[in-house]
UniProtKB/TrEMBL annotation:
Name under which the protein is recorded: Topoisomerase II
GO function term, MF aspect, one: isomerase activity
Keyword Isomerase assigned: yes
InterPro entries: Uncharacterised_A0KLC6
Alphabetical keyword list: Isomerase
Pfam families linked: DUF3802
Length: 116
């Protein structure tokens, strides 16, 4: 659906271009979740919004979306493996939030292009 598209390839390139955000120390808010927890929560929130906006999704489509999201989170874990268990910094949080929005946009585009 999205992980095998040029848009996803561009999204991964965007991530790699901004890896420095994850390589340098930054301001951590008190009680900040780990990088991976924030990624999972933020992407899950975006996909729940997507599903609410597209109530006509079939069970098969929802299952495919879940598999794709699992793959995306896995890719992020691989790329960010050195920092996933560290508390998320303010700058990282902003980037992850933007990245999650772009993931949702990929699904929105795929869904609208499928003629749904």
């Amino acid at each position: 659906m999205v992980t095998n598209t040029p848009g996803y390839d561009e999204l991964i390139m965007y991530l790699t271009q901004h890896l420095s955000i994850f390589e340098k120390p930054g301001k951590v808010a008190e009680g900040a979740p780990t990088v991976i927890s924030f990624i999972e929560d933020d992407i899950a929130e975006r996909i729940m919004t997507f599903c609410q906006q597209h109530k006509g999704l079939t069970t098969e489509q929802r299952s495919l979306i879940v598999r794709e999201i699992d793959g995306i989170v896995y890719d992020l874990q691989e790329v960010l493996s050195g920092v996933i268990n560290q508390p998320v910094t303010v700058e990282q949080k902003e980037f992850i939030d933007e990245f999650a929005g772009l993931v949702k946009n990929l699904f929105d585009s795929a869904f609208s292009n499928a003629g749904q």
